[in-house]
Specification:
The complex is a heterodimer of chains A (441) and B (267). Chain A has 441 residues and is mainly α. Chain A is built from 18 helices and no strands. Chain A folds into two domains: 245 residues, MetI-like (MetI-like fold, Orthogonal Bundle), CATH 1.10.3720.10; 127 residues, no CATH class. In chain B, 39% of the residues lie in helices and 24% in strands. Chain B is built from ten helices and ten strands. Chain B has a six-stranded mixed beta sheet, with helices on both faces. A four-stranded antiparallel beta sheet of chain B has the order 2-1-4-5. In chain B, β7, α7 and β8 form a beta-alpha-beta unit. The chains are: A mainly alpha (441), B alpha/beta (267).
């Protein structure tokens, strides 16, 4: 006789029982050995933290004219007064104090420019990224360096400003109504029914008018020139690593694709380039850049040290990024390449539409790890005489009133780098979750 | 018409090639040989396929059947012989190649859908980027094909959220969106559960009824019996036997064919 088939009812899973007390009991105090270890660890933690707390907070001196005064008030505490006195130098370097607003404005503008990437409803986010990388440098250069503007710079500056305004409006409309700026403008002019061609021409005309207006306006803007050797501190670190990061990924993609190319000359050049730069420490490359670059350049054409350093950092990181990209490309199953080829997409469309979008998602942990490394590696430029943040931190102890102040600035430096790198690391995890789509493991 | 041996009765001289082209031959393979390194994987293949013909290629694994159809859209390159697809010769000319490939659709054993795009985006990608079709038109055409393969409600899902049978039907719809002249199928049901094989075969039968030129590598002999105009048996890189299905299954000529049929039809 056949048994009746029992269909159990569908129920939700049982809820996890227990309070934090139960968790403590199970994880920290479950056996005698564990209890002893827990108490041992707690004692060590208390010991370490109380020492640091006493030095950094309880006994610390926050106001003093010089180190001797600090010492007199409390010899066992940190002398934060010195750090506070030098704080401006840490962040803005030796930039003229009256012109510091330019750096702050530059920082604000890049944030405003990039914010639409994270706002919901905004269309065409990829153009935000592209425009930031290709146009912001001109705006930033004008703000930070000032001085005479050649025609090229004026044109690019006007373009950058128009794009920034357009981008901000696009973001605003995207958040408010989910429409892109062109859509809003066309609707506002009542031209929705017009053909695509007429719409495009109208938008171009408006763009050209805005450009002309901004160009005319900026001709009157004069900013005092600030020599590059006054750039320093966190500002300089972020400039070097920002440019390095912006260049490394596209440069790395180009090099990686060149390395996989079927054309032998390109393949050999790219492979050689990558292998040379990866076999040599960054510090050696920096030294070589500052001493040997002038030999390669034509007569009378000099590059200042900052540009040499930036070029070296960019090339170095592009090579590391190339290997990360190559690994990502190899991780894509052959079937994806075949399906794309079988549809007649051709090499560039296949890479741009199918392969790269998938590969980049896999490469995120490696790419952001590389960026974090790049940020920290920029401290090496202090060895060739640029006053990045690390050099500034060390320079405090050479200042007459604060001679001998070593620990406090380095603690501040460590905290600064931790905050930035941890934020990047956290963002990387967030990117993996949002872009990973269905590929999370 | 019955062909029972490997001796070629196909066109061999340039004059005959030209006349073959005009008599509606859409694919012509002429003394095609291919090696993977030292291994001679395709041995003197001669085949001519007319427009609207449905061909099933079968044979034991390693016989070169997948390699044969992959040579037709140049996913594999042949070393000797000519392959002429829709009047265009397959060579190292790249511009020609993308054009040929957009006329030849291919369905893979492992589906090869693009996981980062929705089903609808998978279908409209090639029409938009290769044929420059405007987005709205491409979307409408894609939805029509999705209805034809009976899964229009899945348009906004990602491939990873679909079952195997649904993914393969999307893959077929994706190839059809380019309105190809020829459809190649490389073991389309071999990676599917038995319940899903039927739904995919139904789509392929319906497609055959519309007059599409199809070359199908498969082990589904039921499909061959119902739909094929000719069945080709390959072994060790050679075409052993070519015949219309009724003759092929009931009256195999070669011993190797008989052996293969006894193995495959036993289950």
């Amino acid at each position: 006789m056949a048994e009746a088939i029992h269909t159990g009812e569908i129920r939700p899973p049982p809820t996890v029982q227990g309070t934090w007390f139960a968790w403590l009991r199970d994880n920290l105090f479950s056996s005698w050995v564990n209890t002893l270890l827990t108490f041992g660890a707690l004692y060590i933690i208390y010991f370490a933290v109380s020492g640091v707390w006493a030095w950094g907070i309880t006994n610390a001196v926050w106001e003093a004219e010089n180190r001797r005064v600090c010492f007199d008030i409390n010899p066992d505490g940190a002398c934060w007064a010195g750090v506070l006195a030098w704080f401006d130098n840490f962040i803005w370097g030796r930039y003229p104090r009256g012109e510091m607003w330019r750096i702050n404005l530059g920082a604000l503008l890049i944030v405003v420019w990039m914010v639409p990437i994270w706002l919901p409803g905004v269309k065409d986010k990829i153009y935000v990224g592209f425009s930031t990388v290709f146009l912001y440098p001109f705006l930033g250069f004008f703000l930070f360096a000032g001085g005479e503007k050649g025609l090229f710079l004026q044109v690019m500056l006007s373009l950058a400003i128009v794009v920034l305004i357009g981008n901000t409006l696009n973001g605003y409309h995207g958040v408010r109504s989910g429409r892109s700026l062109p859509e809003v403008v066309i609707a506002g002019l009542g031209m929705k029914a017009s053909s695509d061609k007429v719409q495009r021409k109208t938008l171009l005309a408006i763009f050209a008018a805005a450009f002309a207006l901004v160009f005319w306006a900026q001709m009157g803007w004069v900013l005092v020139s600030v020599e590059w050797n006054l750039w320093g501190g966190l500002f300089l670190t972020l400039v070097i690593s920002g440019i390095g990061i912006a260049f490394a990924l596209p440069g790395g993609i180009v090099l990686a694709m060149g390395r996989r190319s079927q054309l032998p000359v390109i393949r050999i050049l790219c492979t050689g380039f990558i292998e040379v730069f990866r076999s040599v420490p960054l510090i050696t490359i920096l030294f070589m850049a500052t001493t040997m670059f002038p030999l390669f350049l034509p007569e009378g054409f000099t590059l200042n040290k900052l540009v040499q350093v930036i070029v070296a950092v960019c090339l170095f990181n592009a090579c590391y990024m190339a290997e990360v990209v190559r690994a990502g490309l190899q991780a894509i199953p052959r079937g994806q390449y075949e399906a794309a080829m079988a549809m007649g997409l051709g090499y560039w469309k296949m890479m741009g539409l199918i392969i790269m979008p998938q590969a980049l998602k896999f490469m995120i942990p490696n790419i952001v790890g590389n960026f974090i490394g790049l940020l920290k590696d920029t401290t090496l430029v202090s060895i060739i005489g640029l006053f990045d943040v690390l050099n500034m931190l060390k320079a405090v102890s050479q200042d007459v009133p604060w001679r001998g102040l070593h620990k406090e600035p380095l603690v501040v430096g460590a905290a600064l780098f931790f905050v930035i790198c941890f934020a990047m690391s956290k963002y990387s995890r967030h990117l993996e979750e949002t872009l990973g789509g269905g590929t999370q493991r | 018409m019955v062909e029972t041996t490997t001796e070629t009765t196909e066109a061999e001289t340039p004059g005959q090639l030209a006349s073959a082209a005009s008599s509606d031959v859409i694919i012509l393979l002429n003394h095609v040989n291919k090696w993977f390194g030292e291994f001679h994987v395709l041995r003197d293949i001669n085949l001519s396929i007319t427009r609207g013909e449905r061909i099933v290629v079968c044979g034991p694994s390693g016989s070169g059947k997948s390699t044969l159809i992959r040579c037709i859209n140049r996913l594999e390159e042949h070393q000797e012989g000519d392959i002429i697809v829709d009047g265009m010769e397959l060579g190292s000319d790249l511009k020609n190649l993308d054009q040929i490939r957009s006329e030849v659709g291919m369905v893979f054993q492992s589906f090869n859908l693009f996981p980062h795009l929705t089903v609808l985006e998978n279908l409209t990608l090639a029409p938009i980027w290769v044929r420059k079709v405007p987005k709205i038109e491409a979307n409408e055409a894609a939805m029509a094909y999705l209805e034809r393969v009976k899964i229009p409600e899945q348009a906004d899902k990602y491939p990873g959220q679909l079952s195997g049978g649904q993914q393969q039907r999307v893959a077929i719809a994706r190839s059809l969106c380019m309105n190809p002249k020829i459809m190649l199928f490389d073991e389309p049901t071999s990676a599917l559960d038995p319940e899903m094989i039927k739904e995919v075969l139904e789509v392929m039968v319906e497609l055959a009824a519309t007059g599409m030129t199809m070359i199908v590598v498969t082990h589904e002999m039921g499909f061959a019996k119902t739909v094929a105009d000719r069945v080709i048996f390959m072994d060790f890189g050679e075409i052993i036997e070519v015949n219309e299905p009724h003759q092929f299954f009931n009256n195999p000529q070669s011993d190797r064919t008989k052996l293969f049929l006894s193995q495959i039809l036993h289950n």
